[in-house]
Amino acid sequence: MIFRVYDNHNQPVDDITKAYKLTTTEGIHSVLCRVRRSVNSAMQHLAWLAVGTTAFLTLGWLIKHRLKQREESQNAYKDLINNIITLLENQYEDHLHDPEVKPWLAITHIRDMLIPSQDRKRLKNLWEQAVKQISQHESRIRAESQLIHGEEYEVWRWIQPRSSSPSPTRKKRTESPHSSNEETYVYTPPDVGLTECLKLRNFFDPHGIADDDEIDLVVDSIQNLCATVKRIEHIGINSIFVYLKFSSKEAAAQGFHLLNNWKYHGREIIAKYLRLERYHAHFPEARESSSTNN
Question: pLDDT tens-digit profile of 246-277?
């Protein structure tokens, strides 16, 4: 440590006898003072580290939350489009069986069927996106105007018939007479299903007949995929469709989101909700499945 000597006129001197005051370029601190300063410095660094970490974690949570919202919105959008298309397909098929049934549906009527009135304001943007998608990019649906009760409405008409397939000869998979108008099409929150039952398409080749091994493979694949769902009470095969009965509407909703749009051997599985009475019409033995599994 270097000291400098000054006289009473504040001039540096070399003669110690004329010394009036001493100065140094380095401060002299007690051990306690130095410890306190070190602790304060460390606390400041820790505080800045905590602020930075909190900001980073918050940003990560916001990004993850936004991505989850976007994924849920995309799933809801895709489900709405699929329900609109299926509704128009069924309307067209009803018209083929009964010419008194109009082959088209009013767009506003479709909205009212799919979206409950209390959700229409919240889902307005979702509905408008679906209308735009169908109007601009769906070649199987034609938009036109029709008079309904003397008033002009914009309607959608299905213009591409479903391809017919040969009826399977297996008795176990005979087509049910209740196949038309058996599905329910209402937009509901993703955590609660419309019913306890699902109808699944595209597991089987419509131009072939599945053997027992193929059926067993489908059943095992569904059970493995839905292993976390509490629980599947009954699985039935009818024609080229797979039917599932769950223990609750909540379980059915979980199964729907696992199975709908699932890729199975290169085919995209389509899931629809099925009314419970329709399920029991296909599989009367399923009425006792709840008590059997309890």
Answer: 999 889 988 998 999 899 988 899 988 888 88
* Cβ-based neighbour number of residue 170 at 10 Å: 14
Nearest CA among 88, 252, 250 for reference residue 185: 88
Quote the tokens at residue 238.
């009818």
Walk across the sheet containing 197-201 and list its strands: 232-238, 241-246, 197-201, 270-274
Q: Which helix (H) or strand (E) holds 177?
A: none
Q: Which amino acid is at 206?
A: P
The span from the CA of 95 to the CA of 103, in Å, is 5
Shortest CA distance to 217 belongs to which of 235, 230, 229?
A: 235
Nearest to 163 by CA among 201, 99, 206: 206
Kindly provide the b/e burial profile for residues 233-247, where b requires at least 16 CB atoms within 10 angstroms of the residue's own CB.
Answer: bbbbbbbbbbbbbbb
The whole-angstrom separation of Cα 242 and Cα 282 is: 11
List the one residue out of 63, 106, 65, 66 whose CA is nearest residue 87: 106
Rg (CA), the chain: 36
pLDDT digits (tens, 9 = 90+) for 167-196: 333 333 333 333 334 444 444 445 566 788
User: What pTM value is reported for the model?
Assistant: 0.41
List the one residue out of 187, 202, 194 whose CA is nearest residue 77: 187
**Sheet strand arrangement including 151-158:** 104-106, 151-158, 141-148
User: Residue 55 is encoded by which pair of tokens?
Assistant: 């900001």
Instruction: Return left, alpha or beta for 10; rule: phi > 0 is left, psi -120 to 50 is alpha, else beta.
Output: left
| Residue 132 falls in which region: left (phi positive, over 0), alpha (psi -120 to 50) or beta | alpha
Class of residue 248 by CB neighbours under 10 A (exposed 0-12, middle 13-18, buried 19+): middle
